[in-house]
Write a structure and sequence with these properties.
Blueprint lengths: L1 E7 L2 H16 L3 E6 L3 H9 L3 E4 L5 H5 L9 H15 L6 E6 L1 H14 L3 E5 L27 H26 L8 H6 L4 E2 L17 E2 L13 H8 L5 E4 L9 H9 L4 E4 L17 E4 L4 H5 L4 E4 L3 H10 L3 E3 L6 H11 L2 E3 L7 H12 L2 H8 L6 H12 L2
Parallel strand pairs: 1-2, 1-4, 2-3, 4-5, 5-6, 6-7, 8-9, 8-11, 9-10, 11-12, 12-13
Length: 399
């Protein structure tokens, strides 16, 4: 038996699939992962012995601006992604689990329908799930919320927006494969029992009759890699540093984080990320700052006085599990939501806006550092069995 895990997303959306793949494989089931053709995704999956099927365009050049934008609109780009996902197929697979961008997920479910195999949708935060308890973001059409207070009405509008952007391309591909048009792209993507792969402390889901959500807990890969010897030496040479890194985002004003850490007389560990964050040219001889690439964040964050980051779901969960207080400088997407959750839980600070200044980030870091006792207490409550729970649900769906 074989499961196809499909995730057209950045690193934060692909990494949880690695966790699920490893757990599914422990049950004697083969796994294949559809992901963007970025070299780091291929290397990551090869490192755990999981087959990868590349689909669509590489994500990193699009996110970092290394690849200039085309004149094509979102519907046209989505049509290309849908066609690529259909072409990737699910040959030899017995179930599909899909996450990531809506058009890719809709195509992945269509492939499952074409093959007559079970399908499950997964999301790593609840913002994509229709519920009367919160409004949609309406990001797909670039719209702001209208003066409407009923969340169900807003979700209906969101479904219409998604249909306007993606339904024509999806139905065209489905027709070419002998499948009927879908009634609603959003409803089709969600399926009967969406999986919410987030921690119930960080992302508490309120039950609703509108949707049968199963919250599994976050899908986390246990990381036992040792830290590089040079980083270990740096950590052992003084007080716990403040970590600053922004993952696959390219935030404006990121260099301010290094200035603030030094201004407060603290040592720094700087994660380069996709933005290539590092020391300014005139700070190359700074002895109390260490620049890193890919390392074990689970081990590193436990050694840090605080973690300054962009607020991706994975980074927020890892930092929370470590017990390190956080400063979240949210940029877009679900990041403002995670920033708000960090502040509400009292385990750190949500920076006000995406562009920090020395003054604003200094105040946020001071707030976070004072939250260390609370952060340590919450860390003990974070679940670690999410991927195992999800793997069993996938296997049950295949019976």
């Amino acid at each position: 038996m074989r499961v196809l895990l499909s995730g057209y997303d950045s690193r934060g959306g692909v990494e949880p699939l690695v966790a699920l793949a490893m757990k599914v494989r422990e049950h004697g089931v083969e796994v294949r992962v559809c992901a963007p053709p970025d070299e780091e995704f291929a290397r990551r999956l090869a490192g755990v012995g999981v087959e990868m099927v590349p689909v669509g365009q590489a994500v990193r050049p699009l996110v970092t601006g290394a690849k200039p934008p085309t004149a094509k609109g979102l519907p046209e780009r989505a049509a290309e992604l849908i066609a690529a996902q259909f072409a990737a197929g699910a040959d030899g697979c017995d179930a599909v689990v899909a996450t990531g961008l809506v058009p890719a997920v809709a195509a992945a479910r269509s492939v499952a329908e074409l093959r007559g195999i079970p399908y499950l949708y997964a999301t790593f935060q609840q913002l994509t799930l229709p519920t009367p308890h919160h409004p949609p973001r309406l990001t797909h059409a670039g719209l702001s919320l209208p003066p409407e207070t009923d969340n169900r009405a807003l979700w209906k509008l969101e479904a219409q927006n998604i249909d306007g952007l993606f339904k024509k391309a999806l139905d065209t591909q489905r027709a070419a494969h002998g499948l009927p048009p879908v009634d609603s792209v959003l409803g089709y993507v969600l399926g009967d029992r969406p999986l919410l792969a987030s921690d119930p402390i960080l992302d508490p889901w309120q039950e609703t009759a509108d949707l049968g959500v199963v919250q599994t807990g976050a899908w986390i890969v246990p990381d036992d890699r040792p830290l590089p010897a040079e980083l270990e030496a740096f950590l052992n040479a003084g007080e716990p540093p403040v970590y600053a890194g922004f993952g696959s985002t390219t935030p404006r004003g990121a260099q301010v984080a290094i200035e603030v850490i030094h201004a407060q007389g603290r040592r720094a560990v700087v994660g380069q990320g996709w933005a290539g964050l590092g020391l300014a040219d005139d700070r190359d001889d700074c002895f109390d700052c260490f620049v890193i690439g890919e390392v074990n964040h689970q081990a590193l964050f436990r050694r840090c006085a605080a973690v300054v980051h962009h607020g991706g779901a994975g980074t927020t969960t890892t930092a929370t599990r470590s017990g390190a207080p956080q400063v979240v400088v949210a940029q877009h997407g679900d990041q403002p939501y995670w920033a708000g959750r960090v502040a509400e839980l009292g385990i750190g600070a949500a920076h006000d806006g995406p562009v920090p200044t020395v003054e604003s980030l200094s105040a946020a870091l001071e707030t976070a550092l004072a939250a260390r006792p609370r952060a340590a207490a919450v860390a003990a409550s974070i679940r670690t069995d999410g991927a195992d729970v999800a793997a069993k649900l996938v296997l049950d769906a295949m019976k």
